[in-house]
Amino acid sequence: MTVTDEWDHNEVEVCDRILGQTAGLLAQRGDDQSVALLVDVRAITIVDTDELLRTQQVSPPFGLSEYDLITVKIYSRVAVLDVDDHLVERFTEEIRQRIANTLKYVAERNSRPDVTSVRVRPALPVIEGDWRTSYAQRLERPTNQARRESGAANHPVQDGLTFGSKEELRVYQALSQLQAAMPEHDAIAIAPLPGVRLRSGNTWSPDLLVLGRGSAVIVETDGPHHRNQRRYVDDRNRDLQWQRAGIPVVRLAVEDLGTDDELKRRLVEELRRHLGRQA
Q: So which domain of life are we looking at (predicted)?
């Protein structure tokens, strides 16, 4: 049985500093593999174990004879890393040991001695608001992985393609108008809700994948539900995975789409920036 340290604001800051300094030292030592994994750690806690490390004698508290030394048992500690479920298996025993060797030194420098090992566990999802409705909507989200000629209930359809929302359809329509005005030898391709597997092990369907001139950019339309903390973290994690594949992500807030002309001007700007287009 383990007993966790007091989990207050100060402890969170100390543990996060330990994690960051550990990553920094590993980077200086050229261990990029461990650093890449530590970047994706959501939280770290340092907990006591029941493994006895040593005993030592300490001075007694005030009021007792100075000759009555007290024997204290010192137990080992373990650093517990919370990561997304699909990342757990990447922290192999060898990698955990490399991290532990450095983290032990860093933790001791931060007044957290006796950390002897590193353990990795799946991070628990943060549940906010009406989680039942939120997850039900995710299950209903369509995909064009297998092209659908008719959309699911309540999902708009155009050109034989299904869209997750009317806002996504509107962005698609604006891109289609820009596409129609481009010369045949220098056009773009538009893929709504493609199913894509990334190296992280996840399979995601971005709102729109736009390709042209040998490059690609993802366009996401963010509604109000993207503002809560959990969804914000999920979005940033997705963006990071796409960027690691060399694909930039453009996020358009629904409330900022503006008029059709304003939306097209914004899209032209993003296409120029990410696909190198001049028109």
A: Bacteria
